Fold this sequence. Notes:
The chain has 382 residues and is an alpha/beta fold. Helix content is 39%, strand content 15%. The strands form 5 sheets. Strands 2-10-9-6-5-3-4 form a 7-stranded mixed sheet, sandwiched between helices. Strands 13-14-16 form a 3-stranded antiparallel sheet. The radius of gyration is 21 Å and the shape is globular. The chain binds pyridoxal-5'-phosphate (PLP).
Amino acid sequence: xxxxxxxxxxxxxxxxxxxxxxxxxxxxxxxxxxxxxxxxxxxxxxxxxxxxxxxxxxxxxxxxxxxxxxxxxxxxxxxxxxxxxxxxxxxxxxxxxxxxxxxxxxxxxxxxxxxxxxxxxxxxxxxxxxxxxxxxxxxxxxxxxxxxxxxxxxxxxxxxxxxxxxxxxxxxxxxxxxxxxxxxxxxxxxxxxxxxxxxxxxxxxxxxxxxxxxxxxxxxxxxxxxxxxxxxxxxxxxxxxxxxxxxxxxxxxxxxxxxxxxxxxxxxxxxxxxxxxxxxxxxxxxxxxxxxxxxxxxxxxxxxxxxxxxxxxxxxxxxxxxxxxxxxxxxxxxxxxxxxxxxxxxxxxxxxxxxxxxxxxxxxxxxxxxxxxxxxxxxxxx
Length: 382
Ligand SMILES: *Cc1c(COP(=O)(O)O)cnc(C)c1O
């Protein structure tokens, strides 16, 4: 890159334009461009296979997928969730007239700390909504065990975890349902889009109704639905992008490995592989999970490293590298949720949120830029 070319945390993958044009050509013949047409059916089936899930319902975006999913469960009361996530997770709970109850996260992979969930369960608790943050798999066994014992629903926000498998099983098969986002910035995208994976056909029927105004047939409206349908143009983008998914993951992996090699062993920096190795030593039973290389978070201990998170972000920005502070602030610190949590009740999430950056990582990123960024980070200590 030239020195003044800007590098952002991500850059949307664009497939060859002609290929997309070819894919949408037949839409001009059918003139069926939304409302669960041919492309919608095709993408749903292709994703069902590639994600290894029983069933899947496409949605207009990941957020509506979350909202529709919670609505289809007819939940009332409190939902235990993580504050270390994108605004959407918490908003989907609140917009369903449910109360978010924030649980702390684990220091190694930043997913919800299952050992702290049970303390938060009350007679009003109806569900757990953990997030496979950065594509790291939650402690799904412990969460299933707690949910079983207390009769709770489990919905995973798998917006970061497209294509991730655990012990060879698709991540969308865990819990009662999982929600994916296909936003332009995600590992796999349909411009805007999302999906709910599930296995109960009756639940799938409710999802289908909810995303289409609650309409059953021409004269019957079964419930208070919304409009969360994915259009044929978006589905067509997904069909094309899916062909490039594996190659894109491999290109992300190459950048990821440079970051790992160049940033490991530096005092005060916690990077994903280090954290996972530490975790593996602690709990020998932890399962194998694949990676989709969606995000590369670096947690900076200012004392040990010699510069804090904000200083590092500023130094990189001066050199035209724009990292993101995902996830800062915690959703529990938004004005709309303040007061739900006394400060200090999620000490790990507080600390990680104050000290994390996610580095640029996208398929078309050049290796020399990854090396340069690592140099810049090392130089922040001086
Ligand atoms: C992106 C994202 C969403 C929302 O998905 P959209 O498709 O942008 O609506 C929800 N949760 C998490 C964790 C996300 O990163």
